[in-house]
Design goal:
This protein is of the alpha+beta class and 140 residues long. It has 4 helices and 6 strands. Strand 2 and strand 3 form a beta hairpin. 39% of the residues lie in helices and 23% in strands. The N and C termini lie far apart (55 Å). The strands form 2 sheets. A 3-stranded antiparallel sheet has the order 1-2-3, with no helix packed on it. Strands 5-4-6 form a 3-stranded mixed sheet. It has 2 domains: 33 residues; 90 residues.
Length: 140
């Protein structure tokens, strides 16, 4: 690891700690040359599946797209961005654990819709009206 102060490569790890969720390691390092300390983070490269859309197109998993849709559905409701991000984190972890190379977009949509229904009926209806393309109010 290159020192951010003097650009030398020689350094030693003084302290290592695992993050709360166990997905990242924080390392405190000291440069041998200039003796200054700095922090690095190690994170496993996530391999997420490709998403198969309704029209058979494939695109990479995009957490920001899911968060954006959920934020719109939860606008002006008592649902925090932290709740949404934690849910999307759990969704990513689930898809990593099952190990499929491709996931149908319908599966993601259903998981999101079920979570929103659990949290708030208004958020559920907002999301469902777009996701399921309701033509009138009685189609829920």
């Amino acid at each position: 690891m290159k020192c951010p102060y003097c650009s030398k490569i020689d350094n030693k790890v003084i302290d290592s700690r695992l993050s709360k969720d166990g997905r990242m390691i924080r390392r405190r390092r000291e440069c041998i040359a200039c003796e200054r300390r700095f922090t690095t983070y190690e994170k496993l490269e996530e391999v997420l599946p490709m998403i198969v859309k309704k029209d058979a197109r494939r695109e990479p998993f995009n957490r920001d797209k899911i968060i954006g849709g959920m934020k719109k559905a939860c606008q002006k409701l008592p649902i925090s961005i932290n709740q949404i991000e934690e849910f999307v984190d759990s969704l990513e972890l689930y898809f990593q654990e099952i190990g499929h190379k491709e996931i149908d977009s319908k599966e993601i949509g259903e998981k999101v819709i079920n979570k929103l229904k659990e949290w708030d009926e208004v958020a559920y209806v907002r999301f469902a009206s777009v996701y399921r393309q309701f033509k009138d109010i009685n189609e829920s």
